[in-house]
Design a protein that fits this description.
globular, 47% helix, 6-stranded parallel β-sheet, binds nicotinic acid, binds alpha-ribazole-5'-phosphate, Nicotinate-nucleotide--dimethylbenzimidazole phosphoribosyltransferase, 352 residues, alpha/beta, glycosyltransferase, Rossmann fold, Nict_dMeBzImd_PRibTrfase, EC 2.4.2.21
Length: 352
């Protein structure tokens, strides 16, 4: 396990930041969650004048052995095919990243198939997909460590380019099953509460997914330590995301968290280093059933709720303009004093 040193946010500027927010030309608290976001960005960056620099999105892709058990609506080869789609710029995450000026990098964390002809792919392939966790652990402990380290290295590399805000996306047919197991085992919530339709299973297919995952939970009944849970049920893209999230927080970046799968990767990171949570902005609440409860477990308040159930980082790319608005608010909105606007009247003394 790479060694991560994640500092809880230094609160010494908190009062000054709050004062700056409270003296802006608006009723006290009137920008709601945007004010909390501004406070968080300022604390993460330790400044009264924060700035978002060189935003990046990392999309980690990998295949899952569990996909062979009929737990997804789509065949496994879609993972490889979607990576090609990312490379040609035609996927939803390409469109939204372009729109927001977010640099996008596609990572082969463990896709079945070769990308040697595509140098734009960041090659961090651990293996050609995981094993089916219905029968055996998805990966070995050594592979899990390797994946965490590879993700961490990439986040460090991106930080070194001057980026201070990093989004995390994923692609991997079957990965809502992996995320469900991580959530179930690490939160203790019942499996049914963590389970959802992923790419769009119908009722019968959902019942089959539930049966497969129930059997897998029984096969690995005693696994409980976060890294063991990750190796047993996770995916190479999930483990690389976990490592990248920890390294990004260590580097003092803001982390943009997407939907169910990205939040499951974060859950592992939080169980290892709880302070990582202070650096996270939650882009949205996914339509995937377990996501609401998972966000609740993390005490996280998402920015958007659009009924998205896609992944790829789309929910955090769509929320990025709100983060930018929070920063602009703190830097550009006039204060009562600078604009010559009168502040709230003191409450009159009661006549009775
Ligand atoms: C064309 C296509 C594009 C996607 N982009 C993200 N996902 C999403 O769906 C998958 C998870 O759902 P499940 O566990 O049901 O397989 C992941 O690849 C996730 O990123 C996609 C899925 C498909 C089919
Ligand atoms: O919330 C997500 O990330 C999600 C939901 C369904 C399918 N793929 C991803």
């Amino acid at each position: 396990m790479p060694d991560f040193h994640i500092q809880p946010l230094n609160q010494s500027l908190a009062a000054a930041i709050q004062h700056k927010i409270d003296t802006k030309t608006k009723p006290l608290g009137a920008l709601g969650q945007l004010e909390q976001l501004a406070r968080q960005v300022a604390l993460v960056q330790q400044t009264l004048t924060p700035a978002l620099q060189h935003p990046h999105m990392l999309v980690f892709a990998a295949d899952h052995g569990i996909a062979q058990e009929g737990v997804s609506k789509y065949p496994q080869e879609v993972t490889y095919q979607m990576v090609l789609n990312f490379l040609s710029g035609g996927a939803a995450i390409n469109v939204f990243s372009r729109q927001q000026g977010i640099a996008l990098r596609i990572v082969d964390a463990g896709v079945k198939g070769s990308f040697t002809e595509f140098p734009a792919v960041v090659d961090q392939k651990i293996a050609e997909g995981t094993c089916s966790f219905l029968r055996e652990p998805a990966m070995s402990s050594a592979q899990c460590e390797q994946a965490l380290a590879a993700g961490a290295r990439l986040a460090q590399e991106v930080a070194a380019t001057g980026c201070n805000v990093l989004g995390f996306g994923e692609m991997g047919i079957g990965n809502t099953s992996a995320a469900t197991m991580l959530m179930h085992r690490l939160t203790g919530l019942p499996l049914e509460a963590c389970l959802g339709r992923g790419t769009g299973l119908d009722d019968d297919q959902l019942a089959h997914k539930a049966a497969v995952l129930t059997a897998a939970a029984a096969t690995h009944a005693t696994v409980s330590a976060p890294l063991d849970v990750l190796a047993t049920f996770g995916g190479f893209e999930i483990a690389q995301m976990t490592g990248a999230m920890l390294a990004a927080a260590e580097a003092g970046m803001l982390l943009l968290i997407d939907g169910f799968i990205a939040t499951a990767a974060l859950l592992v990171a939080v169980k290892l280093h709880p302070a990582v949570l202070e650096y996270c902005v939650f882009g949205h609440q996914s339509e995937e059933t377990g996501h609401r409860l998972l966000l609740g477990h993390l005490n996280a308040r998402p920015l958007l709720s659009l009924g998205l159930r896609l992944g790829e980082g789309t929910g955090c790319a769509l929320a990025y303009p709100l983060l930018q608005a929070a920063v602009n608010f703190l830097n550009e909105v006039a204060s009562f004093e600078s604009a010559g606007v009168s502040q709230a009247e003191p409450q009159p003394a009661s006549a009775v």
